[in-house]
Amino acid sequence: MKEILELLESNSKLTENDIAIMLSMDVEEVRSKIKELENNKTILKYITLVNWEKVGEEKVSAMIEVRTTPQRDVGFDSVAERIYRFPEVRSVRLLSGTYDLGVFIEGRTMREVSHFVATKLSTIEGVVSTTTHFVLKTYKQDGVIIEDDEEDRRLVVSP
Questions:
Q1: Which tens digits make up the pLDDT trace of 10-26?
Q2: 124 and 76, same structural domain?
Q3: Structural domain span for residue 118
């Protein structure tokens, strides 16, 4: 199953037939394993990574470091759940170090992101402080280089 997951993670457009050929498996076996992985929520979603700038769509992304007070019996989970329920939130991660949670959000404008932090995030019980970092440029996301304009710099070798 690990091989199927690795293939789908690198290219979610692969068909069951493609995977079966690549792994020398029966198509029905691949189909069954993928269905099982979807049902037990190992495969959560198939994602398309879009460079929105190419279509003239501007979005503002920010990473917000959040310091919280852990709650008895649930630790950070309760605060994290309240945060990840907001539609603006793209991901929430528990961190080691100075801050407890890393919250990644997306909005249409800097003002919209700032409004989210001021009125929704910082008002949650248990949130002690936040530090917002606006994303200025994304070079690589989910293992994909966004703008790969690198030319082949190898020297030409001729006989």
A1: 999 999 999 999 999 99
A2: yes
A3: 54-137
